[in-house]
Amino acid sequence: MASIPGGRTPSQPATRSKLRGVTASLPAEVQQVFERFITTEFTTVDRRGQPICWPLTPYYRAGDPCIDVTTALGYPKKAFDAEANPKVSLLFSEPTGCGIEKAPQVLVQGTADVDYRDLEANRVRYTREAVEKLPGAKELLPPEPLQKMFSFYFTRLYIHVRPERVYVWPDGDATREPELFDAHMEEVRSGHDEEAESVPEADDGRPATWDDRIDELGEKYPEAVLALVAPDGFPFSVRLPITVDRAARRVRIGAGALGVPVHPGRACLVAHAHGRNFEWQTNFQVRGDLVEDDGGWALVPHKLIGGLELPPVSKAKIYAQNAKNFVRFWRTAKKTRRRLSA
């Protein structure tokens, strides 16, 4: 295992929690991040060992044992991945709209419980909470009488994440020493209390696959979230500066992050942005291999995937742009219902 230049890399601690009620025992300012951030970068690990990171909306109230996120019936993969491998992470690194000055960057590694026991109750809960949390998105939703036609979106699978350990970078600065809750940093660095697992290796020899949208990285998005799999099997993610080297077909990772267990292997880079009231949002991810390159680290891209986006255009144009996606989501939702009822 190596480290991003300028930083030090800890070994990872055991998956079990040393503190009971980790979430409730956290400082109020950290719990405030969970409650007030509009988005969190949620990472799962699929059956191939590929970390997959997407921005989602977190739901939390002070003292709750879990932080909740959701995904729709029409795009359930992140929920099924979390059910198959409950080691997940939540990164709080995009403070736009949260109203917290100099907000810390917070990484939560935890275990997931996927809840689809009552899909109708989930739909009711989501319809209520989404409007409360994202008032700016209300105008983009279809009228209530038509929402049944969009059940592929409003019917939700909830993912309850119980924190196992929490990293906090003051002022959102990943070049500073993170504060670790759940174990002493010395134990983490020494490898004491560690449950070692194999790290997914890079697929050597695969050529880079370039997409024109990758050029937005470093320009439109000067920072992005890097997600990888730590030696104990938990996802680890952090927001870092990035630059694009089109000639070399690499996305170069900024230097200086402390506490990042970086190593060659499969990784995911996610870029996203949203309005202060979530009146618009854009996002995409790049999956590839993290490699040592020129004394630093770079992502060799293999696949770009765009998420469901709500760009700052008219409501009619948004629906027109996503029409093909809606048909695909509707078909997937039907398959998901059959799978859940089997």
Question: How would you describe this structure in keywords?
Answer:
342 residues, alpha+beta, Pnp Oxidase, Chain A, six-stranded antiparallel barrel, 7 helices, 13 strands, 32% strand, globular
Indicate how many domains the architecture comprises: 1
Proportion of residues in extended strands: 25-35%
SS-based class: alpha+beta
Order of helices and strands: HEEEHEEHHEEHEEEEEEHH
Q: What's the overall geometry?
A: globular
Count the beta strands.
Answer: 13
Mean pLDDT: 86
Report the uncertain regions.
Answer: 5-20, 183-193
N- and C-termini, Cα separation: 43 Å
Description of the molecule:
There is one protein chain. With 342 residues, this protein is an alpha+beta fold. The chain has a single domain (28-341), classed as Pnp Oxidase, Chain A. 20% of the residues lie in helices and 32% in strands. Strands 1, 2, 3, 4, 5, 6 and 7 form a 7-stranded antiparallel β-sheet that branches. The model is unreliable at 5-20 and 183-193 (pLDDT under 50).
Itemize the secondary structure elements and their pairings.
Elements: H1 28-36, E1 40-45, E2 51-56, E3 67-72, H2 77-84, E4 87-92, E5 105-115, H3 119-133, H4 151-154, E6 156-169, E7 179-181, H5 185-190, E8 223-229, E9 235-245, E10 250-253, E11 265-274, E12 281-293, E13 296-306, H6 315-321, H7 323-341
Antiparallel strand pairs: 1-2, 1-4, 3-6, 4-5, 5-6, 6-7, 8-9, 8-11, 9-10, 10-13, 11-12, 12-13
